[in-house]
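Lecture 7, part B: from sequences to assemblies.

Below are the input chains for today's worked example.
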Amino acid sequence: MIIPVILSGGSGTRLWPLSRRATPKQFRSLVGTQTMIQDTAARLATLGEVGEPLVVCGARHASKVQKQLAAIGVSPTILIEPSAKNTAPAVAAACLAALDRDPESVVVVLPSDHVIEDVDEFARMVDLAVATARDGYLTTFGIVPTFPATGYGYIRPGDSVGDAASAIAAFVEKPDEKTAIDYVASGYLWNAGIFVFRAADFLDELRTHAPDMHASVVTAYQSAPDEGDTVHLAESGWNTIDPLSIDYAVMEPTKRGAVLPLACGWSDVGSWATLYDLGTKDALGNVIQGNVFLSGTENTYVRSDSKPVVVVGVKDLIVVEMDDVVLVMHRRAAEDVKAITEQLPDELT
Amino acid sequence: MIIPVILSGGSGTRLWPLSRRATPKQFRSLVGTQTMIQDTAARLATLGEVGEPLVVCGARHASKVQKQLAAIGVSPTILIEPSAKNTAPAVAAACLAALDRDPESVVVVLPSDHVIEDVDEFARMVDLAVATARDGYLTTFGIVPTFPATGYGYIRPGDSVGDAASAIAAFVEKPDEKTAIDYVASGYLWNAGIFVFRAADFLDELRTHAPDMHASVVTAYQSAPDEGDTVHLAESGWNTIDPLSIDYAVMEPTKRGAVLPLACGWSDVGSWATLYDLGTKDALGNVIQGNVFLSGTENTYVRSDSKPVVVVGVKDLIVVEMDDVVLVMHRRAAEDVKAITEQLPDELT
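Predicted structure of the full complex, as structure tokens:
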């Protein structure tokens, strides 16, 4: 059985004010009509032998997950993290739940807040990745770069393994721009945090490379009361875990890693500048949503949620109007949103 | 008796969205706490022998005038124009009402939507202007320019008349920038639309230079039903009037004109750019009002009326948030607001 594991622990602060602590961006509709977590769950529906997803999230978001997925006919099992511990423990807990369903289960680990434009190509590549995983590889998708991004880590592919995959020669950190250009020219791929492996294989590797974490997650999972579709991971084991990403805990140390190149219109929609890039532009390069009036304005993103927004004579701005706040920002300042939210009153963040 | 005549027929469209058809800028607080028409009425309170003001406005604004002036203890007589006919007929009607109070009355004609920072200096100059008016001159204040403005008409002073005034050598139209520099260097003054004269003298000159208008205004005034503090000028006479400014109808043709230089921190607050200029600036040149958070922002005006506004990484913007609309505009585009309001739905203008 193939089991989607949807990670919904992210906070998406760079998309404030659309993304809030109470309602991070995965619960919003950024592109199209469904929310991002709905898109994520729907994306795998075309594959065969796919079970209901496992979703890992914090307690404050569990009811949103349940409600939004129910709205598209999906009945997830929700694993609730008592506290945020980065991705490795979350994936480990999901793998334990997957094993309970099927000892041979292959999990497809998906962040809940990414956009994929070409769903058919994605599905085709997931099929390949599942085959690679069934050969015993811990497989990650490496996004084929479309520009020399400095905001992502990269994966250097090594020798071929199987039909389509390569060994992982190295994970490398976010580069400066010059290095990024070199990486793209050398065939490096973006590390997008999408993984496919047998649940049992991941847990084996975690036990080898991070035995304390493995033990703590097992404790937290096994001590969770049986509540049907919701698993409250137990604080006893969970709270002793040192937060660590799946990359650091398993994917870098493992000798069983593989990478598959993926070119499917992927974006993590990491900032308002990215959302502008993804949008449909008018003749002057503007992207608008809602009740917006423009005059003499170029290369600007304007979103109106609750009342009309009139923009005159500007270039390269992001304007976001919501029912309780307005953000006006230069497109080049899009990465600075997180910093200013730290200065705002709690009720706005 | 000195009688203030407050002209409240302006629409202030360049200050949209603060200024609306239903509530033009004179009924708003732009600088300080009182509304502009309240400031205008209060400005003359320090003078001696000043009667209650006459206010000329359209029917839709009469109750606002009454209410706002009552709030500061002023009981105006309101002359309601059946239609807008520019300033000459409005002033003529007010002069007829002033004559009914006192045949020797001197009127001080004031637009309702100007800012004057140095009220003491203004009062001192009004005293001088009243003396000049009592010598038989139709006196206008010429604002001493503080920069080579291209947005105002200018007055060229001629020979001295009386103690402080000059004859009016010429009224000249709004200049281009080069011409404006010449004008300022040559001692020209801004034409601000503030006048002081005996009501009888103005009506005499109007009868001489615009006899049809004079006759129509007399008809409209004399046919108005007696309603105490409100005079509904009669459509019968009024609607036959060709609109004309006081400058064209009387001040240019008269041989009895005089100009007094006035340096009192005057502004017509004609646009958002002017409101920025008038504001108190922080160390980065920003002017803010209301619940505003700035980061990396310079030389920007932000006004929040109903919800927080966050501005990040921009320069030279005007941001105005009101309960039903948001305006984001480059400071250099401030003169373009009027044009865009013509494209907006009626309920927003």
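Note for the exam: The mean pLDDT of chain B is 95. Keep this in mind when comparing with the next example.
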